[in-house]
Amino acid sequence: MLKIAFDPIYAHPLPEGHRFPMLKYELIPAQLLHEGVITADSLFSPGLLAEDIILQTHEESYWQQLRDLTLSLKEQRRIGFPLSALLVEREIRIAQGTIDGCRFAFDNGIAFNVAGGTHHAGTNWGEGFCLLNDQAVAANYLLNNNLAQSILIIDLDVHQGNGTAQIFENEPRVFTFSMHGANNFPSRKETSDLDISLADGVEDEQYLNILYEALPKLIQQQKPDFIFYLAGVDVLSSDKLGKLALSKKACKARDRFVFEQCIANNIPVQVSMGGGYSPLIKDIVDAHCNTFKMATDLYF
């Protein structure tokens, strides 16, 4: 059974004027349930992440400012959300959900977090709607508990995974791969182990050919025993922030290829959903739901 981390807090942490970015987190599981892709038993609500696990990835002073709601207004503007206790709770539940998903992935080959992909959060900063880096937290959890020895993070969100790159810049057991828009946020990029920067307007065939060439080589070179996949749908041509020009069909082909590579190499994978900012919420939800459907078709 496909296991998916979801809690209602994912969708309701913000004042009304900031709600739109969060609507998809409520609508994705509702759509999957409506279409019969999953059952209620597929969904699990993560608990609260322990502080000592947070501190394996994020600096104590930064975490304390988050926890105590004492970040400066400048730091809050960098994040993009007004800081609140509910928002911090949301982030620690998301990170716990990604850790829980790793356990399910060991059993089932794959597991999802409806939210997550908070790849702009670094060791001591939040940025771009990201406070805690869920996949980085989970990767460190696996390493520190001897559950994995070599990890590959595949970040196919349209924005570079700058926080993830910075967190693991001196960690040889984690290979960070980011394929993103060259002229997109963040303006100051970090250095991933492999960065593939794409020009504005890249379309289906070129994008997929680049991925088809790069990913199998990476897996053969790195021989990871666990993969994290950040499956952002802000690569779509309809996305108001993306600057690329992929169709939904190409987005599905991207997901299929990633999952097929994981299956062929017998590597468990945890999937966090990342960004999506098309003007029509239906386009965002449909594209994200396609990722879940592809996993269901291939794994179950």
TrEMBL record:
Protein name: Histone deacetylase
The keyword Hydrolase is annotated on this UniProt entry: yes
TM segment ranges: none
Tagged with keyword Hydrolase: yes
Recorded family membership: Belongs to the histone deacetylase family.
Organism: Mucilaginibacter sabulilitoris
CDD domains, per database record: HDAC_classIV (cd09993)
Residues covered by the Histone deacetylase domain: 22-288
PANTHER family registered for this protein in UniProt: HISTONE DEACETYLASE 12, HISTONE DEACETYLASE HDAC1-RELATED
InterPro entries: HDAC_classIV, HDACs, His_deacetylse_dom, His_deacetylse_dom_sf, Ureohydrolase_dom_sf
Pfam families to which the protein is assigned, alphabetical: Hist_deacetyl
Keywords recorded for this protein, A-Z: Hydrolase
